[in-house]
Specification:
By secondary structure, the protein is of the alpha/beta class. A hairpin with a 5-residue loop joins strand 2 and strand 3.
Length: 118
């Protein structure tokens, strides 16, 4: 079964609509804490799962790296025996094309998506 989750992060002091840029680790930390997961779980080959939960091996990445995130999530899933998941960091209005592409593949290969809005 396929699920699409949207997590919206509200930033204090953004009333003037200036864009705030955070790095991947910022979003990874918030998501992993929210899901009670383990950040940077190290595999036998020394690669790292961004967030490992009881159910999912999650790759966290920005929208423009949507294709790369698919391979990583599937690999981490195979190595951990957890379900594959991707937390994609996007500006929903400006990066719809990445979401559309990723959603197509996620549905086909049963990859859970977490959408983290910039």
């Amino acid at each position: 079964m396929y699920f699409l989750f949207v997590l919206l992060f509200l930033f204090a002091g953004c009333s003037n609509k200036q864009e705030i840029h955070h790095n991947e680790r910022y979003y990874q930390t918030i998501l992993c804490q929210k899901l009670d997961g383990e950040m940077e779980y190290v595999l036998k080959d020394r690669t790292r799962v961004d967030c490992l939960t009881k159910e999912y091996a999650i790759e966290v990445d920005f929208g423009k790296k949507w294709a790369e995130s698919i391979g990583q999530s599937l690999y981490y899933s195979a190595m951990t025996n957890k379900k594959p998941a991707i937390a994609i960091i996007v500006d929903i209005q400006k990066e719809k094309r990445y979401l559309k592409r990723l959603n197509l593949i996620a549905q086909k290969y049963n990859i859970k998506l977490f959408i983290l809005e910039k």
